[in-house]
Amino acid sequence: MIKKIFYGWWIVLACSLIGFYVGGAIFYGFTAFFEPIREEFGWSYTQISFAASLRGLEMGIFSPLVGFLADRFGSRKLIFWGTITVGFGLILLSRTQSLAMFYGAFLLIAFGAGGCAMVVTMVAVANWFHKNVGIALGVMASGVGASGLMVPLIVQLIDVSDWRTTLIILGLGMWILGIPLSFVIRNRPEQYGYLPDGAPPNDPMPNLKNQRKGVEIGLKEAFKNRAFLYLNIVEAVRMMIVAAVIIHVMPYLDRLGLPRATAGLLAGAIPLSSIIGRFGFGWLGDVFDKRYVMAWTFCIISLGMLAFCYVQVIWVVFVFLLFFPPGYGGGIVLRGAILREYFGRNSFGKMMGITMGSASIGGIIGPTLAGWAFDTFGSYHLIWLVFCGLSGLAISLVLKIKQYSL
Predict the structure, then answer these.
(1) Which of 40, 56, 171, 179 could disulfide-pair with 90, CB 3.0 to 4.6 Å?
(2) What pTM was computed for the model?
(3) Over the stretch 101-135, which tens digit does the pLDDT of each residue have?
(4) CATH numbers and ranges of domains, the chain
(5) Torsion, Cα of 188, 189, 190, 195 (10° steps)
């Protein structure tokens, strides 16, 4: 008799596909729009970078609210309305005629992405898993990594038509894919006769195991815990680095003299290479102490940033792809896995929202700072070295994260 697939894995698949499209359309893919928009309007790197940083507000100002709403109303409704809003935002962005309108469209995209990006999808998956939460989150987050496949396609669409038409296509695609997938999402397994990880409803052992392995901690208790503070600071540092690299990679490579098509391939290879870290470090986090595994992710991020300073040498490109993407990809998964294991799931959405809100502070500062550094010094080299050092400093904070005890 064929064993029925646990429904939680269908939720993982749906969230992975949503993450694939959202990641490609509004996160990794934006670097392809950078130069065409600058050429048409003549805006500075700092101005465009700041607009892209506003898109990161789905992990910022909106995240705590989104986390609260996900815990209160469930993930399905948020994903449904989020995909609709993102589609409208992309189409509005295609009609940009001024810097104010440019910023306004990004704010709308950020608001919509708050409902269908990482906070909500991680809540949806974490509610259905406990023992296998690391690998489940890894599979889900790998969809975002695979969105790198969209970057060369977006570059080609822009070259064949123009950047405005491409944004309209992406907006319509958001509706076509995201709306049906939102109906696959279910909130908690107990509402449908399941237990986390697919254990039989009449099996008492999962509850006993969960009691031994973890505790349920409220939001107020988490705020008093230094581990929660350290995790938030670490996420701010990680996202500062990642957002700066993702947004500026094509302008950076263009300044180094690489052809636009080649730069697009490298930009797409970054999230694709991160899949190794999302799967691998997610699995390692289920086997070993998650703190030490996360510390290793920052070690290889630091090495990757050092290589990024010298990517004009061909073999160094491969060193960069070997270290940087798997490092930040693994950090994405371990962030949620640590929260789930150390603090439980009752307030997971709220705590994930706050943590990603902290990350967004770095996500706004990083790209804007990189744009300012280029406008001021005419080079990205110094800022990449600064980010390399910050990644190393984050390791000490990761190692201070300790299990909460009552």
Answers:
(1) 171
(2) 0.66
(3) 888 888 888 778 777 677 778 778 877 777 777 77
(4) 7-190+207-398 (1.20.1250.20)
(5) -130
